[in-house]
Amino acid sequence: xxxxxxxxxxxxxxxxxxxxxxxxxxxxxxxxxxxxxxxxxxxxxxxxxxxxxxxxxxxxxxxxxxxxxxxxxxxxxxxxxxxxxxxxxxxxxxxxxxxxxxxxxxxxxxxxxxxxxxxxxxxxxxxxxxxxxxxxxxxxxxxxxxxxxxxxxxxxxxxxxxxxxxxxxxxx
Length: 172
What we know:
alpha+beta, 8-stranded mixed sheet, single chain, 7 helices
């Protein structure tokens, strides 16, 4: 529709996106993780124990895809919500047992010192590894320029320093 020039908000690079828009080089690694109530840490330890749980994820997200594609998680009861933060609210309220969402969001929103101090990421359950990119219109020259700038920021140490500061992993 040409109503925007750039998509830059934790956008997972997929083959479908690359067919329809110009996508930058990957800049951050992400993964899908499972968030549960801390009180349920002994109950939910892996995908097998989650197969009988009530799961929640953002509709159309990588988390939803993982639930549908994972042999264990696909057996669970699944409810879609409109955004990842709604998934966290469902787990906090006890209406869902676990949420599948982006590690980058989960690590900043759950655990000690957060609004979701009673929630935690299930340790050792990394459901899919993905990379974030920046999307532009197919005919845009912005993608090439952004790739050049990102390469410079990696070379001069700026992006690695930011990744370290915020506990992220740069894409390789």
